[in-house]
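Morning run. Coffee first, then this:
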Amino acid sequence: EKRTGCYTACIFQMRFGGSTAHVRRLADSGQLGRPLVGVCNTLWYRDAAYYAVPWRGRWDTELGGPTMGLGIHAMDHFLHLMGDWREVRAIARTLDRAIEVEDVSMALVTFANGAVASIVNSALSPRQETYIRLDYQRATLELTHLYGYTRDNWKFTPVQPAPEDDLLQAWQSAPPDVSASHGTQFNALIADREAGRQPLTSGEEARKTLELLTAIYKSAFTSEIVTRGSIKPGDPFYGALHGHRAPPRRKDQPPSPLG
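And here it is:
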């Protein structure tokens, strides 16, 4: 982008729901108070038939498991709401699928603003759910959905849920809703192109999310706490999410047929 003056735009459609813009406005105005605790769960289910497709389940073609291929969207949405991350410690396992990549990961993240959060990415969860929880000083916001959401998917719990509470009124005064979808992001992309504007999910903004999930993999495979900005060219994880290592496997699990 810096070299050409042209922009990229990653597909991170979860950022583009109208309710997310409303949450950002409340948070940025200070009405919610400081963010303190967060939860970001991508608990999905992918069976053996899903991984029978030749390119899935391989580091060289799918690049990673649910951390890369499934949870990336919720994690990007989460970072968009929580702000810059600072450090991460994580684990990754291949527990139940005969694949090269992980089928579950878990991470603890510290943010630059001092907030702390947990992240789970799973391909093993029969009751599927995407869940984001944000605990601010003055309210808890929860979003439960699967592949997309509207305002109705949010739950708002203020510290003092009285009808006359100013924060409750602010929450209820949201503008007309726009669903989070690929179509909504494409509309925004076209508007940005016509205005000559940098898209919301381009450049350094998209890199923050990719750097976080890379740090999750590095922490999982090295047992180290990984800080933002520490994975640089020359680091084995800079060019390969698994750093040319493999996640721990159950002792009784058969080896992957994918080699």
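The longest strand covers residues 124-136. Good start to the day.
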